[in-house]
């Protein structure tokens, strides 16, 4: 299980570390990256040697989400992002995330799908979707309120504000905040603690813990896809992308006349 954009390393304890590997782009994703990560999760789910997956990022960042300079919305009629999310949502074993630096877009929404989240003190998180003229992804419109409460989630989603690791901890998005240099060793150590136990027990406990949420997550993802299809290519969305490419603030008020 190896790909240029996703590095994969399985240790003798049964911990598979998947590293998002585009550090020069702050580990932003193009279509190939989404497909590669989806394949890695699907393979890990079926590999009897894997007890726990640890997801992290190369360099100084976790992930800045979608690479807006390399947009390719669909591949063979099915969005690569949704293929990847299918694999993550179907992943039955414990998922641990170790994030530092920027955690934006997918870099933030994937944390809702992790079972344990360790953040470095440098972590800055953001749900940028409204600033792109789009809707949430990865069932964040459901998992956000379910995790941190409706009003707290609404503030983050409606403002697209940046927030730090301590706030993520207070909101229940993170399990623990650590100095950056302790982040990966701690995450690996905890993942190995989990991996020492019977995989079937880990799988069954996770299944029961998440049983009440599965249908709601699937429904939220369908609603998000419908919203995405409705808003993708809209004047506000096109203005957001143009502003990004031209390195200027977007002007959405022009569409209120």
Give an account of the 3D structure.
The protein has 257 residues and is an alpha/beta fold. The chain has one domain: 2-enoyl-CoA Hydratase, Chain A, domain 1 (Alpha-Beta Complex), CATH 3.90.226. Helix content is 44%, strand content 15%. The chain is built from 10 helices and 9 strands. It has helices at 31-46, 80-89, 106-109, 140-148, 150-159, 165-171, 180-195, 199-210, 214-231, 235-246; strands at 6-10, 15-20, 52-57, 95-99, 102-104, 116-120, 124-126, 163-164, 176-178. It has a 6-stranded mixed beta sheet, sandwiched between helices. Helix 1 (31-46) runs parallel beside helix 2 (80-89).
Q: How widely separated are the two ends?
A: 52 Å
Biggest beta sheet attributes: 6 strands, mixed
Radius of gyration: 18 Å
Looking at the chains present, what oligomeric state does this protein adopt?
single chain
Strand content: 5-15%
Secondary-structure content class: alpha/beta
Model regions low in confidence, pLDDT < 50 over at least 5 residues: none
CATH topology value: 2-enoyl-CoA Hydratase, Chain A, domain 1
Provide a count of the helices.
Answer: 10
CATH homologous superfamily caption: 2-enoyl-CoA Hydratase, Chain A, domain 1
Helix share bin: 40-55%
- Tally of strands: 9
Q: What is the CATH C-level name?
A: Alpha Beta
Q: How would you describe the shape? A: globular
